Amino acid sequence: MKNYSKEEVEKIFSNEDLFIKNFNSLTDREKTSFLRKVGKINTQYKNFDIFIESFKSDNENLRFEIIKTLSKITDINLFSFYKKIIYIEKTSDIRREIVSAIGRLRNKKTIQLLIDLIKDDDPNVVLQAIRGLLVFKDDPLVHKELKKLSSHPNEIVKLIIENELTSTDSNKSTNHSEVNPKLKNKIVKGDSLDVLKKIEEDTFHLTFTSPPYYNARDYSIYKSYEDYLKFLEKIFKEVHRTTKEGRFFILNTSPVIVPRFSRNYSSKRYPIPFDIHPFLINMGWEFIDDIVWSKPEASAKNRVGGFLQHKKPLAYKPNATTEMVMVYRKKTTKLIDWNLKQYSKEVINESLVKDEIHKSNLWNIGPSHDKVHSAVFPKELCDRIIKYYSLSGDLVLDPFAGSGTFGNAALERKRNIFLIEKDETYFQDMKKRFNLDNQNTIEFIENFK
Ligand SMILES: C[S@@+](CC[C@H](N)C(=O)[O-])C[C@H]1O[C@@H](n2cnc3c(N)ncnc32)[C@H](O)[C@@H]1O
Fold first, then answer.
1. Which uninterrupted H or E stretch holds 337?
2. Cβ(136)–Cβ(108) under 8 Å?
3. Which residues belong to CATH 3.40.50.150 in the chain?
């Protein structure tokens, strides 16, 4: 097997005659490996027959490398070759590469073919054709054809068209990093839905919350599971409205179990995170990550005990030692970089995560117990959410504050807090906790207007 070094390949490739002589003597595998070593191309080739001939090979890798190499030679004479092979080639990767090569020609002669290709069945081909056409997006015909893709079935195609053809304000300066002083460091007693309705849109930088469970604890009785989900949907719609562009909503839930009615019935398990997910997506949250909070087995309710005795299949019920921490971002066409650019260098520096970094989405954290509240967040969980998903000085929300663990952890990292809790006992309990910890910097409001 002929194995050329990168230097040899570059020397041979820069001389058309030398290339033809060497390349023709290689096997398909050797040709592939040769082409992979071709770097930048300076030579003007007069004749592309050698590539066109080699493209007849059955070897997909070779065909792919040929197109990759040719795409670096932006010569309009290659267009007729591309035009011929784009409908013959069957492999998606190679077709995408051919369309990319056509786009790189940046020549008006390619427009009609690219317009035909945005009707292709393969979304990869469509996306590459869009890239090629965007160069000519000021041409009325191209603009009209691209606009038609706003109703394309593929979500990425739709997103790109919406972004490229409609958004003109992508760098508009906003008050993104600012915090409404009226809402800074407030703990409000009330129903979250009523309180959030009074708050203007684009207010919060981050929300982290754990909603009441469905019938699993005494403070959370709903008429039906459907009612419960509808209640959460209404609140999370308000959270969405009041969240700033491109910022995060992090939701801690887990399936809950409702005990059986009698020995003649089985207990029922409700998959809360999975049932909430579709309506969060529908209301405009983008799914970002699923973090699994894992607790020591000793802290879980023993469900597997019966099985350990009888060992009969079908009746297996593992102990539930995990909860979901679902990460969503308010849907936007802007990248995270845009969000970060809205802050001063000082704030960015102050917010860099310089302590321990958790590399995987499996977070092992022990549960927390509390004398007053029966379902509190561990502070460690809150601290991770704050450091990874907000910046110093941000305004963070917990609409189901409970004992205020999230608020406490947020203040420690110099974030501003806005907490809502409807239960009188928990609200009074927070008064004690926060006044002890934060020397009256927090205002407690019983009648939020
Ligand atoms: C799972 S607990 C949150 C515990 C909290 N993460 C902590 O660390 O203490 C849910 C809380 O939501 C409160 N809650 C339930 N419905 C509410 C509503 N409509 N508005 C405000 N708070 C509500 C409950 O009283 C309960 O304290």
1. helix 336-341
2. yes
3. 181-445
- Which of 400, 417, 425, 428 should be mutated for ligand 1, with most atoms under 8 A from CB? 400
Q: Which amino acid is at 261?
A: F
Q: Which residue has the tokens 């070593």?
A: 37
* Contact criterion met (CB below 8 Å) for 210 and 400: yes
179 alpha-carbon distance from chain centroid: 25
Q: Residue 218 burial (CB < 10 Å; 0-12/13-18/19+)?
A: exposed
Indicate the DSSP class of residue 181.
G
pLDDT at 216: 57
380 lines ligand 1 (CB under 6 A): no
Residue 420 Cβ contacting ligand 1 at under 6 Å? yes
Q: CA–CA separation, 171 vs 422, rounded Å?
A: 40
Note the Cα 411 to chain centre separation in Å.
Answer: 27
Q: Is 375 in the pocket of ligand 1 (CB under 6 A)?
A: yes
CATH 3.40.50.1000 fits domain 6-166: no
| Residue 377, pLDDT score | 93
- The pair of three-digit structure tokens given for residue 201, joined into one six-digit string: 């849109």
pTM: 0.84
Round to whole Å and give the CA distance between 251 and 236. Answer: 10
Return d(Cα 164, Cα 333) in angstroms, integer: 10
* Under-50 pLDDT residues of the chain: none
Does residue 421's CB lie within 6 angstroms of at least one atom of ligand 1?
A: yes
Fold assignment, 181-445:
Rossmann fold (3.40.50)
- The amino acid present at 16, given as its one-letter code, is E
Tell how strand 256-258 and strand 322-330 pair up: unpaired
Alpha-carbon distance 369 to 371, whole Å? Answer: 7
Q: Could you write out the DSSP letters of every residue in 98-115?
A: HHHHHHHT--GGGHHHHH
